[in-house]
Amino acid sequence: MLILVPTPIDEESQLESTAKERILFDLEHNPENTLILVEDLKPGRQRWLRWGMPREWIERFVAYNEHTRDEIMNDMVQAMKNGSKIYLMSDGGLPAFCDPGMELVDLCHQQKIRVTATPFPHSIALALAMSGFPHNQYRFLGFPPQKADERAKFYKDVLNMPETLILMDAPYRLKKVLEELSASGMNRELYLGLDLNSSNELGLRGQVVKIMSKIPSEKREFIVVIAPRL
């Protein structure tokens, strides 16, 4: 499992409590299968100590950034396949959002490794980070129109937009949105995030037809991320 850990963007705030408790639990109960990836070692260690985290772990940090990712990414994926949990942190903010963590998330999806995150209050950025899709350029489309003719035009326009796309709708329209994307001729990969950050969280990535076969029947809050056009 890969766990994205959003961290404060300032130098004074503490790590979010759920993230802290979750990391400490794994360090105590399963230390051999817990890895901490930080963007840069020195600032990562300084923040870790300021948060009151165990000092003995700072020497075991692994630097994951644009200089090291190609060298260690496959090893990290293999470690997760062997049962490890990896916590990924950036120097500040949401990891894998417009930073090298994106490639690691993408590879996890390709290898059927679960990607999740500790609490983060912005569903759009969180879904983009958890999708693993390139998103240096992205467009938030909001909710599709309710009128049938306007809705049909909406999906037609989507096909012509090259960048990564994000859309949402009411929970009871989940199946309808996927059916409409399929009917539009969409052949780009999707990431569907259901109830992100909740105990019922589910993230699905693939072609829309495959995702439709896996969605639960009950109403769920959702966000759809559409991969950029190749």
Highlighted features:
230 residues, 10 strands, Methyltransferase, Cobalt-precorrin-4 Transmethylase, Domain 2, 18% strand, single chain, alpha/beta, elongated
Task: Please tell me about this protein's structure.
The chain has 230 residues and is an alpha/beta fold. The chain folds into two domains: 2-119, Cobalt-precorrin-4 Transmethylase, domain 1; 124-226, Tetrapyrrole methylase, C-terminal domain (Methyltransferase, Cobalt-precorrin-4 Transmethylase, Domain 2), CATH 3.30.950.10. Helix content is 35%, strand content 18%. It contains eight helices and ten strands. The protein has helices spanning 17-29, 41-50, 69-81, 101-110, 123-131, 148-158, 174-183, 208-212, and strands spanning 2-4, 34-38, 62-63, 85-88, 115-117, 138-142, 164-168, 190-194, 202-206, 222-226. It has a five-stranded parallel β-sheet with strand order 3-2-4-1-5, with helices on both faces. A five-stranded mixed β-sheet has the order 6-7-10-8-9.
Please give a quick description of this structure.
By secondary structure, the protein is α/β, with parallel strands linked by helices.
What order do the helices and strands come in, and which of them pair?
Layout: E1 2-4, H1 17-29, E2 34-38, H2 41-50, E3 62-63, H3 69-81, E4 85-88, H4 101-110, E5 115-117, H5 123-131, E6 138-142, H6 148-158, E7 164-168, H7 174-183, E8 190-194, E9 202-206, H8 208-212, E10 222-226
Parallel strand pairs: 1-4, 1-5, 2-3, 2-4, 6-7
Antiparallel strand pairs: 7-10, 8-9, 8-10
